[in-house]
Design a protein that fits this description.
The protein is an alpha/beta fold. The chain has one domain (5-318): Inosine-uridine Nucleoside N-ribohydrolase, Chain A (Alpha-Beta Complex). It has helices spanning 15-26, 44-57, 81-84, 108-118, 132-140, 170-174, 176-185, 195-200, 205-212, 217-225, 251-260, 308-318; strands spanning 5-11, 30-37, 65-67, 123-127, 150-154, 190-193, 234-237, 240-243, 265-275, 286-289, 300-306. It has a 9-stranded mixed beta sheet with strand order 3-2-1-4-5-6-11-9-10, with helices on both faces. Strand 2, helix 2 and strand 3 (65-67) form a beta-alpha-beta unit. The longest helix is centred in the first third of the chain and has 14 residues, at 44-57.
Length: 320
């Protein structure tokens, strides 16, 4: 019997983080050793509460959850409440939500270093929020990335296409310095699902409807917390509402899917990557060194093409 893939998830739990966590928990070949929380889509306390809620919905409350960084390295914070809701999970009241007393007392960054050290060369870290915790881990333990099997990131961009600023994707814009530290100092194989990659592989809203209407408790939970995003399925053209071209994009699930089953990604571009920190228009943008002018030792694998049928299957089984 093949031993299970060991994953650590670092999340800023909004809707797509919840979807990504549920995908990892549903995969029979995966063991999630812990979930670390970072600021991002919502406040750190909301992120922690949301992770506990997702674990409860999946009947996996035994998985340890750790509270991490409450802001970026330089202190500015963003949030994504317009899409995710103020609380990060669609602002649906949940009177039975587990409280913060269920968190571990150990700080997320310490936990990350400890768990990775205990399982040296066996763990894939999947980071789907701002990279603050991950950057702090390598600052506290410079050997951290040498003990990781893989790092999977959802964030950044490959064509300068932003969703928060002109050229900035949300996770990288939320802490550009942290993203820069991680992309420049990590030596383990690094796989990146960029904003453009997720957009290019959006799913039809018909799939979304079928997905949340499965007859299962997890699907009912997802239907409840995503109740408001239906408005993103339709856009106004004159006086008419028509289907949005964008489709349903579960950004963070693309990074988890690659970690769960590497055959989901059918094409990568391998090159040195960096983050622009100074540009007036381009701060936070991920820069691809396709000419290899920087002669980087660790060149990242930037995801280019996806096996959408395999991805859909992983999405469906997440809510079964």
């Amino acid at each position: 019997m093949e031993s299970k893939k060991l994953l650590l998830l670092d999340v800023d739990c909004g809707l797509d983080d919840a979807q990504a966590i549920m995908m990892a928990l549903a995969a029979p070949n995966v063991q999630v050793l812990g979930i670390t929380c970072t600021h991002g889509n919502t406040t750190i306390d909301n992120v922690c509460r949301n992770v506990l809620r997702v674990l409860k919905a999946c009947q996996k409350s035994e998985i340890p959850v750790f509270r991490g960084a409450c802001g970026s390295l330089l202190g500015q914070t963003l949030n994504a409440s317009i899409y995710h809701g103020k609380d990060g999970l669609g602002d649906v009241p949940d009177p039975n939500a587990p409280g913060l007393e269920h968190l571990q007392s150990e700080h997320a960054v310490n936990a990350m270093i400890r768990i990775v050290t205990e399982h040296s060369s066996q763990i894939s870290l999947v980071a789907v929020g701002p990279l603050t915790n991950v950057a702090l881990a390598i600052k506290m333990d410079p050997t951290f990335s040498t003990k990781l099997k893989h790092l999977y990131i959802m964030g950044g961009n490959m064509e300068g296409r932003g969703n928060t600023t002109i050229c900035g994707e949300f996770n990288f814009m939320s802490d550009p310095e942290a993203a820069s530290i991680v992309l420049n100092q990590f030596v383990c194989p690094t796989y990146i699902a960029t904003w453009e990659y997720t957009l290019r592989n959006s799913l039809p809203w018909e799939f979304f409807n079928e997905w949340i209407n499965q007859d299962a408790q997890k699907a009912r939970f997802m239907k409840e917390i995503t109740g408001h995003i239906g408005k993103y399925a339709k856009v106004k053209q004159g006086d008419e509402e028509v289907h949005s071209e964008a489709g349903f994009v579960s950004c963070d699930s693309f990074a988890v899917a690659a970690a769960v089953d590497e055959t989901v990604v059918t094409e990568y571009m391998q090159c040195g990557v960096n983050v622009e920190l100074q540009g007036a228009l381009t701060r936070g943008m991920m820069v691809l060194d396709t000419l290899n002018l920087q002669k980087k030792q660790n060149r990242a694998f930037v995801m280019v093409k996806c096996d959408l049928e395999k991805f859909k299957k992983l999405m469906m089984s997440a809510l079964k």
